[in-house]
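Session log. Operator J.P. requested a structure for one protein chain; no other inputs attached. Running the standard single-chain path with token output.
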Amino acid sequence: MSYTIPSGTFHTTEVSPDTVQAALYFFDSSCDFIKDARVLGPVSGNSFFQSHDPAGMTSTALAGIVNEARSWEISMKQGQYHFRYGDREHALKAFDSALNLCTSAESVHNFPHYKQTVLLELGKLNRRLGRYEQARDILEKLLMEMEPNDQRVGCSGELGVVYRHLDRLPDAKHAFEVQYDTAKQSKDERMACRAIANLGMVHYQLSKLDQHHCI
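Structure written below.
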């Protein structure tokens, strides 16, 4: 995307939290130029002045960072495409490639969002491949590292399903309770309803188990 911003005009950019965002500006001094621009944001921050100084960052280095982030996005889209159409082995390979970038690429290495996104997809994929122990190990570690957010809702729900497959019903119940609490905190009614459905199922299974023991 490219556009022109007149000198001295206020403009905004919305960026998802914990992600890399790059904007390349070309300053045309023939059309007027303000060296120091006032900046507002992030929402919880204070205003400050941004000097139009590259601070040692070359255009080549910046292009390299953008290329690394795009490579991660491409690997993720390839994995999700293969996953959607049932080619799960190729999906696994694509997600592994994205995960490798999370440790080798400077642009995404310092942002937990990228690694957590890949690990959640790997947890889902391993569950669907019947690799429940692998899925459990991935999701348990991931859940401990996550802040309360939309990804945590999905991760706890996935983990609860894995526990059900492993016949660990009390653990499944706890995971679905985490899913519900996090969804309510995030005001995500759709996922809260899903968590309630999951809890209903596991409570039913636990009640049947109790009846069997009583008999």
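Operator note: The mean pLDDT is 83.
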